[in-house]
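Render this sequence as a predicted structure.
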Amino acid sequence: MGPWARDNKQKADLFAESLAEILRLNQMDEENDLQHIEDHIYEYIPLVTPHEVDSEIRTNLNSKNALGFHLITGAILKQLCRKGVSLLTYLFNATLRLSCIPDIWKVAESYSDCFENLLLKQLKSLIEEKHLIPDYQFGFRQKYSTIDQIYRITDILIERPFEKKRYMHCLVLDFSQAFDNVWHEELVHKLNKMLP
């Protein structure tokens, strides 16, 4: 065990050293993770099948959405015959192949909702299959929560220092929708004032 920190400067220095050690480990992981992502960034996204399109329309598309520019609602799409689903599948796959989403879909809510949901499923599958999200990231992932991150922090920041007979303090905050609700300009101003 090291010497006791007697004043605020010594406490801040010890805290900074501790954080630097922890963050240095994460940065190494982050660099490897970024390289792994870059290696797979142009990975082929599988095309959708008529069955996937039909299933998405019937189970997830909102039947009550308002009439858009094209006057086609989710309820109308749910009435598509097999030929209509095949044509919509062809359209979605052309969009994937060309990597270009039609501008008209910005006002054609039914099409864009369906396509976005299908694309999200494809991306999630690819991300999980290729392990593109680091194991220590818990936000925006299904079946992971703040509690899982707390268990991880408990292991890394509390149990390991105890094994070496060191002290560790940890503060964990979870603000629901914090970024959405914060005054961004004031946050940037305060961060600029706080940082050297």
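Summary. Helices lie at 8-40, 50-60, 74-77, 82-98, 109-130, 146-163, 178-181, 184-194. The CA atoms of residues 186 and 192 lie 10 Å apart.
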